[in-house]
Design goal:
This protein is α/β, with parallel strands linked by helices and 191 residues long. The protein is built from 9 helices and 5 strands, in the order αβαβαβαβαβαααα. The protein has a 5-stranded parallel β-sheet, with helices on both faces. Helix 5 (93-102) links the parallel strand 4 (84-88) and strand 5. Helix 3 (41-50) packs parallel to helix 4. The radius of gyration is 16 Å and the shape is globular.
């Protein structure tokens, strides 16, 4: 079996601010990820065609093609589970709604803080591995996918990001509709 560092090998960092990109890249490498960088959405699309990432860290406001449209494109282009963490200076409800509509799986605001970024990346990487195992019908995959997705949705709820958590709830309802924890999450989200 691959070790965890090997299975979370590649992150695509899409960030147009050079200082922020360098800071986040150093942090990603310290977590054991290989990092591909792109300065805008068009570059991100090209890079993803050469190296499909495990996780995408996406800035929202960039030249040429913004992070929302790039996320939407990547979600359509790669229909398996490709987690996208939206990392942006935008912190209003409209930005969260746009991120959710584009298919973002997590949302963090700048300035970049090491602990929340680490937690989000590790949660999304765990979820990606669980979804990959579920796709090939591995033993125990359903339970791990439910646990991993509940962990992500729970953190999003704690951060008052119910719109994005609701997208995870929709997936949970297809995987484990009878699970009491899924019902509890739905109640927490008012659904």
């Amino acid at each position: 079996m691959k070790d965890e560092a090997e299975t979370r090998a590649r992150v695509l960092l899409v960030e147009d601010d050079r200082d922020t990109a360098q800071l986040v890249e150093r942090h990603l490498r310290a977590l054991g990820f290989t990092v591909d960088c792109a300065a805008n959405g068009e570059q991100a699309i090209l890079v993803s065609q050469n190296h499909l990432p495990a996780v995408v860290v996406m800035d929202a406001m960039m030249p040429l093609l913004d992070g929302f449209e790039t996320t939407r494109y990547l979600k359509v282009r790669y229909p398996g589970y490709l987690p996208v963490l939206m990392l942006t200076a935008l912190d209003d409800a409209e930005a969260v709604a746009r991120a959710e509509a584009a298919g973002a799986d997590y949302f963090l605001t700048k300035p970049v803080r090491r602990a929340p970024l680490s937690e989000a990346l590790l949660l999304l990487d765990r979820l990606r591995r669980a979804e990959d195992a579920l796709e090939v019908d591995a033993v125990g995959a359903e339970a791990e996918a439910v646990e991993a997705r509940l962990a992500v949705a729970g953190r999003l709820c704690d951060a008052s990001l119910g719109r994005i958590a609701a997208a995870h709830l929709a997936r949970l309802r297809t995987i484990a509709p009878e699970d009491a924890r899924v019902t509890a999450l739905a109640a927490r989200l008012g659904q």
